[in-house]
Amino acid sequence: MTGSTPDHPHHTQRPHHPPRDLDQPHDLVGIGIGPFNLSLAALAHGVPGGLDTAFYEQNPAFHWHPGLLIDGATLQVPFLADLVTLADPASPWSFLNYLRGRDRLFPFYFAEKFHIQRAEYDAYCRWVSDQLPGLHFGHQVDSVRWNPERALFEVDFTQLDADGEAEALGRAYTRNVALGVGTEPYVPEPLRPLADAPHVPVIHSADYLHHRAQLITADHVTVIGSGQSGAEIFLDLLRARPAGAEKIHWLTRTEAFAPMEYSKLGLEHFTPDYTRYFHALPEQARNELLPRQWQLHKGIDTDTITAIHDELYRRTLHGGWPDAVLTPGVRVRTAGRVATTKIELHLEHIQQSTRTRLTTDAVVLATGYRERPVDRMLAGLDPYLRHDSAGRARIDDTYRLVLDASVTGSVYVQNAEKHTHGVGAPDLGLAAWRSATILNTLTGKDPYPLPHRTAFTSFGLEQRETPRIPAQTQHLTPLTQN
Questions:
Q1: Is the whole model's pTM more than 0.85, yes or no?
Q2: Beta strands 221-224 and 53-57: pairing type?
């Protein structure tokens, strides 16, 4: 690679590459450049012998949840859950190498921070995306088809200009495809008309920072949703509003503002061992299990819960209570506008079966995300796709869509397989392992040897043999002789 390298990160100009034959097929085309496909691209760059890859993203540059990079907010996974380390600790695209290139390795060492800030993770990923070859931003993929005559996938895309308008059309041929289009904000049905209406302050948490100044000055704000994002937004608004005049409601459907499961053995649900166990379960068992595991990934980390309580308590030190209402077990039945500038929420308490109305000036929806639909993009593959009893795509244990046997190429998926692989699908801690699994399968050469065992928990009753490390203490040779 010419130009800037991971050891010289201050130069962000992309390397120059000679023109290629446009009909020459790639080994892999990635659709979408979020953290997961960026991880795949980084590890593919290190495959011995090289892979011909191209990754396409419709946005003009890499940005990871820019509306939620709240000052001080941290990742919920350790920094080792970067793009590559858990598959290849020696990769030049690691977070530690990013710090070294920024002359920040010693400050990070002394900071003793195992969980880095979200803004720092975003900057690290952008550092990788600015230098890694084969990434094409401003390219919107329109369709994917299988060409049986050439035994290749055809990927049609539109190149966009700086304003996001169509500039040119193109087509790439590839032996394999990796879908990493990510998720999109979910807005509950009762609130969609207001969220879609212009100039109505009903926003999804994904856009929080873009509207923060307006929300801080609003007379009354309601936050809906009790996951990590809802908690962080409530805390940020609470800290920014005057004591005694906070005027914030925090509502959620869940039965409590519950902590996320973060015990050491609980975290083993985010290991490859558990992923393999979950994938091997019958479909019905997987369907029944997933909703019961919400606290593994939808709760609030204990540090944030503590900070919220500390801030509320601080506001009672001189008497009185803060004007903040926190109510779990509540759902929004309907919503509408009142007097042109206010919003009325019709609420129902699930356990009490009681109803009330809440008038507010702004609503923040911390209501999570859903898989981004790809039906139109993959319409050309419909005849080849295989589905489960619920109509969802079948995905094998190596993250490939199950296709008709006549299709000799593979379509891999990233963060679209929770129904087959479990709660770890969107977890950053499994990104490098999943990318390595995909590349090992694609090449058939295991360029990234992966561990046979990753958890102390045996999730099923099947017997497994774990390689034992031979005892070394029985045959010690002195380093020096007396």
A1: yes
A2: unpaired
